[in-house]
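> call design_seq(struct)
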């Protein structure tokens, strides 16, 4: 098997419109207008976030674990301040090496703001 890439991550919700507002307006992600109306999709750089209502498909609702979605941002402090001003509540101070800030979306799914330290000796990141 050859995996080309991760196409999408399913984000469970109990309120599709609230999730659409959060991911589209609060986070400012671009909505994929070609996606099916019952499965709204938002582009987050290298992966698509697909909003799904599991209970509508006969599956139980369960949130994603904390830190399941790590959103790389250029400046964590300003991104965090912007989201806090929009009512997003973060869980404590930076986690681990100072590059992770944990939060939750309106359904309780774990989100993380992250800025990767340069892993290469020349100071670059992938």
């Amino acid at each position: 098997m050859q995996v080309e890439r991760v196409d999408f991550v399913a984000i469970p919700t109990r309120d599709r419109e609230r999730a659409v507002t959060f991911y589209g307006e609060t986070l400012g992600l671009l909505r994929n207008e070609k996606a099916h109306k019952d499965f709204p999709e938002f582009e987050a750089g290298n992966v698509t976030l697909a909003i799904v209502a599991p209970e509508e498909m006969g599956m139980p609702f369960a949130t994603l674990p904390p830190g399941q979605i790590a959103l790389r941002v250029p400046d964590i402090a300003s991104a965090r301040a912007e989201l806090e001003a929009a009512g997003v509540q973060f869980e404590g101070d930076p986690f681990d090496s100072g590059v992770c800030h944990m939060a939750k979306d309106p359904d309780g799914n774990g989100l993380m703001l992250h800025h990767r330290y340069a892993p290469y000796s020349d100071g670059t990141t992938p």
